[in-house]
Amino acid sequence: MGDNNLTMGKTNLDVFSQTLIDLASNDRDILVVTSDSRGSGRVTSFADQFPDQIVEIGIAEQNLVGVSAGLASMGKKVFAVSPACFLTARSLEQVKNDVAYSDHPVKVVGISAGVSYGALGTTHHSLHDFAALQAVNNIDIVAPADNFETRQVIQAAVNHPRPLYIRFGKKAMLNLHAPDAHFEIGKAIQLTPQLENYDVAFIAIGETVAPTFLASQELNKQGVNCCVLSLHSLRPFDENAVQQAVERSKVVITVEEHSVNGGLGSRVASFLMQAGIFRSMRIIGIPDEHTVSGSQGEIFKHYGISPQGLSQTAIHLLNDEQEMK
Question: pTM above 0.70?
Answer without folding.
Answer: yes
